[in-house]
Amino acid sequence: MERTRNSAINAVAATVAQTINIVITFVSRRIFLMMLGETLLGINSLFTQILSMMSLVELGIGPAIVYSLYKPLAENDREQIGAIMRLYKKIYTILGFVILGIGLCLTPFIKSFITGDISSVENIYLIFFLFVLNSSFSYFNSYKQNLIIADQKKYITIIYHYGLYVAMNVLQIAVLVATKNFILYLVIQIIFTLLENVLLSIKTKKMYPYLKEYKDCKIDEGIMKNMKRNVKALVFHKVGGVCVSSTDSLIISKFIGIVTVGMYTNYVYVTNAFSTLITQLFSSITSSVGNFNAQSTQEESFEVFKKVYYFNFLLMGVISVCVYCLISDFIAVVFGENMLLSQLVVTLLVLKFYMTGMRSSLLTFKEAMGIYHEDRFRPLAEGLVNLVVSIILAPHLELVGVLIGTICSHLFVNMWIEPLVLYRNGFGRKTASYFISYTVYLLSLVGVCAVTMLLSSWIAVTSFWMLIVKAVVVGVVSLTLIIIVSLILNKKEFLYYLDLFKKIIKRRAL
Fold this sequence. Notes:
Blueprint: H1 2-54, H2 61-74, H3 78-106, H4 124-137, H5 145-150, H6 154-179, H7 182-207, H8 221-245, H9 248-255, H10 258-293, H11 298-334, H12 343-357, H13 360-368, H14 378-397, H15 399-427, H16 432-456, H17 464-489, H18 491-509
Helix pairs in contact: 1-6, 1-9, 1-10, 2-3, 2-8, 3-4, 4-7, 6-7, 8-14, 9-10, 9-14, 10-11, 10-12, 10-13, 11-12, 11-13, 11-16, 11-17, 11-18, 12-15, 13-15, 14-15, 16-17, 17-18
């Protein structure tokens, strides 16, 4: 019951926080575009992606250490918790300085990543250095929040992070309107990164005062051996993940142009806003799943997985249909019709979004079960397919080629290997039922999307208020259709969530 309660609190906190985040992010981005223009918007997006690539030095150490905390926390083994956190601190302090060093070495060559006229941009090297500084500072003390997350209390870190994020954006917007100064905008970002680290560090000390007491203890040999094994596997996961998620802007900037980076990332910000929400929701239950798996049979874990996988489809189905039907109208209203991309690009982008999002339940259980070693080479294959196909097609098909590269990496690598590894090593089962469900879900969603598009096509979006009207229509229609599909395909899982919802309402009423 405690696990369910923690998961529910974490999920609610994640949903509310990310909803606020979506609103403030797009207001901030709109004002950024108005005050600083398309070129700086593209540079901001490009440098963000370059720093994401530099996070490769972390090598997946974080998830491996978080996994190693599940058992000691469940058993209240304070000695081992203190020992693990001492190692965590040492490694992340080193990583912060490594990021700073790599960034300084890369700064003189930063212009070589940009195609297009940037003569109007002053202090390009200083701008990149400030990005590097912010990324470097994010490693100092930030490791402490992962102890709170592993202890099933992620809602605490969510409150701190998004509270400060909103405050930061309000201040950045004020600075942009008053001064149009990109340097000050970045300095504010650095200050809030440091502030978040300090506040979470203080909170962790209050919640776990015994960390000082056990900081000189040694990590158990079994835990250390398992941790090293997971880190070795996660190196490949990290490399592959960076190649897929952080290279698109670089390829677009090099082969197409820096302005196109800004246009494309407007769309990506929409899908990423929902991707972050989905990630937050599923990561909010990861520690609870890890705690459950440590005390349950494979059959019991599989029963829970089926419920989570169904929820994954329900969530991704409604959001994907809404994004597909509304994203072009949203971009036109918020950023202007001159920032629109073709419908083919939109179709491929939403397909990529759906395929990525449907991995959430798989990845949650893989992480909770510590299944890293078994598919350690998958991310390398994923990254290689993405890079090769994107680089070959980008000069000829531009954005379409880049998106085809990412879709191919999912279609030919992830879709087959991830469920195979989880089912075989986590549940002791074959994957036939998974692939049948995936295919049926996708085909039914295409039908839902077609009907929703048809029913909403009569609404002409000429203002923000008409966009809201269309969003309500699309949301209601898509949710209704997917619930009907659910009653046909997954009646058992649907009734489970309906019963859970009724219990929550009844408890609130008491």
